[in-house]
Structure formats: structure tokens, C-alpha cells
Design goal:
The chain has 388 residues and is an alpha+beta fold. The chain has three domains: 129 residues, eRF1 domain 1 (Translation, Eukaryotic Peptide Chain Release Factor Subunit 1, Chain A, 2-Layer Sandwich); 127 residues, Nucleotidyltransferase, domain 5 (2-Layer Sandwich), CATH 3.30.420.60; 110 residues, 60s Ribosomal Protein L30, Chain: A (2-Layer Sandwich). The protein contains eleven helices and 16 strands. The strands form four sheets. The chain has a five-stranded mixed sheet with strand order 7-6-5-8-9, with helices on both faces. The protein has a four-stranded antiparallel sheet with strand order 3-2-1-4, covered by helices on one side. Strand 12 and strand 13 form a beta hairpin. The radius of gyration is 26 Å and the shape is globular.
Length: 388
């Protein structure tokens, strides 16, 4: 059975999908939300497939049916019980085939599309929303340090506190025993904090959530070195009886809220850049230009933005943002023009360059500028030649 996709694997697969060449064969991009059970996601797949069959014929229809057969066979045999979302990319044609499945511990929207190239927007949104982070769970009996990657938890370290013998009424008074217990607990927590610091540094982690007994998490928070405190996102109360899955789910909700705050901070930097004519660009054409010149530092997309239409020449690569597609390319004169979704083209270029994408909610200035913007590494040094 397939393993759940990690964040590092997702990054690699986005790079692969973003660089796939277009062919005449249809490329099927299939996202399914598995949370409501098989009957629900099967119906979403079949309903959408019936619409797509109506607009395909000849070789394209045959290639689509072959790709759908590969997708359905995977759904029949390879889904993990704990998966909440799946993304499947398939293309079948005479010269060869491509199939790439990914399963996630977090949901994805139902979305099935047929295009000459993969639809990777939802993968980029997933990567933006669910970073990799560390959870430290502390109870009276044990401490766990867990990495959460795309909602899936991996235990990195699990240490039980040495048990103390009850010697009250013998050589020790109850007061002496309690003092000794506190000292042992403080020493134990200090050792776990040192381990946490080493693990976070070695793994390059930049986000931390504390969970567990409020008294212990408070003590840990006060003892954290400044370098780790700067990475602390939130502190969540949890009892030792709570299952690890429940604690991770609680931290995931807190992290998604924090990630949206971080996205708003990036959007504020973008708005300031536009106001001061700084290192920011707005609109599809300007952002495509920046990405193609590798000047884009972060791409911003409003979650509810309306996609713009355009076209790209498969022969010379010329790209224009305009609704009407001419009969031939103005640059090379060839009739090899394909309509594009501007947002998907932006995401494809960002994926090729490993450029971060921030999907932002509730940013009126960004929406007023078309829902698309980017932060720049440096200003434009040459005029645009092939973008309108």
C-alpha cells in the first residue's frame, strides 16, 4: 500500500509536474477529497468524467479513457485507510505513458481537469497551507517530539521520565520528596529542550507548537533558548489521556490559522511595495514577466481571484494575456497556439523555479489589483519583449 506523501516529496513532485512538456494527448489531473467515503468521491469522479467525455473524441477520447482506467485501478487497490485526499496525474498515449499518484493526510478539493499539461495549483496551495513543523508534547510521564509534514505525524523522539520511588515517611519528608521531584522534572525537561533544539536545527525546522500539561508547557516555554522561542507558533493544552492523533489534529488547526496570519503579513509587504513603488508587481502580465526573468521572490494569489485567459505558442514559447486567440502566433507565424489559464501558468512557472506561492484570503487591495501579485528580488532591468 502506498505511503502518505511528505512535504519534501511534494516539493519534488511539483518540480516534476511543472516541467512536463505538452503533447496532443490529454493530461488528466485528478484531485479527490476522501473524507466523506468511497461513494462520495466515486460519484464526484464519475460526474466530472461524464462531462469530459462529452468534449473529447477520437484519439483524445481513447487516451482519456486509458488514463481514467489507470486512475480507477489505483483507487481500487492503493488507497491508505488514513488518507483524506489524493492527487492523481495521468497521461496515456502511443509514445508512452505518465502516472503519478500522491496521498495526503489532509483533504484536497474535488477537481478533475483535462489539459495539455498538469494542473498543479492545488498542490501549490497545499504546500503553502501545510508546512512542516514540530510538535513537542509534554506530560507528567513522558515527552514526545513529533514532526508533522502535510498533516502526517512522525515520532522523532519519545522519552519517558524516570520513575521516582515513594519514600515519603521514611528517610524523606513529603516536602523533601516534592522538592526532589521538581528538580528531577526540571532536569528532565532541560534535557528534552536540548534534544528539541538539536532536532530542529538538524532538520531545518522553522515552526514549533507546544502541547500538553499547561504547567509543563509553561515551564518549557520559559526555558526555551531565544533561537527556538522565535519559532514558537502556539501552545495548546492537552492531557496525557488524549490520543496522539487528536493532539496533532489540534495543532494542525492552530498551525493553519497561524499560516493565514503569515500570508496576511506577506500581503501587507506586497501592498506597501505597491504604494511606495518598491519591489512588488501586480497583475498577471507583470508577474509572468517577473517569473520568466526569475525576478520573482514570492508569488501571491488571492484564493477567490477570477482567472484570466490567455494563450501560449507551443513552437516559440510566446505568451499573451488576452481573451481572443489569433489564428497564428505574431512572433513565429505558426498556428500552434494553446489557450491557457493565467493563474495555472503562473503556478507552473513558480513550480519550475521553486518560487514560494502564498495563497491569500481577505486582502481587498490584492483583489482590486486582479488577485495576482509578487514580491521581487530586484527591479526590472530590461523592457518586456514577449508579454502584453
Amino acid at each position: 500500500m502506498e505511503q502518505l506523501t511528505t512535504l519534501d516529496e511534494l516539493r519534488r513532485q511539483i518540480g516534476v509536474l511543472a516541467c512536463i512538456d505538452e503533447t496532443e494527448a490529454p493530461f488528466v489531473s485528478c484531485y479527490l477529497n476522501l473524507e466523506q467515503g468511497e461513494a462520495t468521491y466515486r460519484k464526484a469522479l464519475e460526474d466530472r468524467a461524464s462531462f469530459l467525455r462529452a468534449v473529447l473524441d477520437g484519439d483524445a477520447r481513447a487516451d482519456f479513457e486509458a488514463a481514467m482506467g489507470r486512475i480507477e485501478a489505483y483507487l481500487d487497490a492503493k488507497l491508505r485507510p488514513g488518507a483524506k485526499g489524493v492527487a492523481l496525474f495521468a497521461r496515456e498515449f502511443r509514445a508512452g505513458a505518465f502516472f503519478l499518484p500522491m496521498q495526503f493526510a489532509v483533504p484536497v478539493p474535488d477537481w478533475i481537469a483535462v489539459n495539455p499539461s498538469p494542473h498543479i495549483y492545488h498542490l501549490m496551495a497545499l504546500k503553502d497551507t501545510y508546512h512542516r513543523y514540530v510538535v513537542m508534547i509534554a506530560t507528567q510521564g513522558w515527552v514526545r517530539i513529533i514532526e508533522v509534514s502535510l498533516g502526517s505525524a512522525t515520532v522523532q523522539a519519545w522519552t519517558e521520565q524516570p520513575r521516582l520511588r515513594e519514600r515519603v515517611g521514611g528517610k524523606w519528608t513529603k516536602t523533601h520528596y516534592e522538592s526532589y521531584r521538581r528538580e528531577r522534572t526540571s532536569l528532565f525537561l532541560k534535557e528534552q529542550i536540548e534534544l528539541l533544539e538539536r532536532l530542529m536545527a538538524a532538520g531545518g525546522h522553522t515552526h514549533l507548537i507546544l502541547a500538553g500539561d499547561p504547567r509543563l508547557t509553561g515551564e518549557i516555554r520559559r526555558a526555551l533558548p531565544k533561537s527556538v522561542t522565535a519559532k514558537l507558533v502556539d501552545t495548546i493544552p492537552a492531557a496525557s489521556r488524549h490520543a496522539q492523533e487528536d493532539v496533532v489534529a489540534a495543532t494542525l488547526s492552530a498551525f493553519v490559522e497561524w499560516e493565514e496570519q503569515e500570508s496576511q503579513a506577506v500581503a501587507a509587504r506586497f501592498v506597501q511595495g505597491i504604494r511606495t513603488q518598491g519591489l512588488a508587481a501586480a497583475g498577471v502580465a507583470a508577474c509572468l514577466d517577473a517569473l520568466r526573468q526569475r525576478r520573482a521572490d514570492v508569488l501571491l494569489l488571492a484564493r477567490d481571484h477570477l482567472p484570466e485567459s490567455g494563450w501560449r505558442c507551443a513552437s516559440c514559447g510566446a505568451l499573451h494575456i488576452e481573451r481572443d486567440v489569433p489564428a497564428a502566433c505574431p512572433q513565429c507565424g505558426k498556428a500552434t497556439l494553446r489557450p491557457i489559464n493565467a493563474a495555472e501558468e503562473l503556478v507552473r512557472l513558480a513550480g519550475q523555479q521553486n518560487c514560494p506561492v502564498e495563497v491569500v484570503e481577505y486582502c481587498d487591495p490584492l483583489m482590486a489589483l486582479g488577485g495576482v501579485g509578487c514580491l521581487l528580488r530586484y527591479r526590472e532591468t530590461t523592457r518586456r519583449q514577449d508579454l502584453v
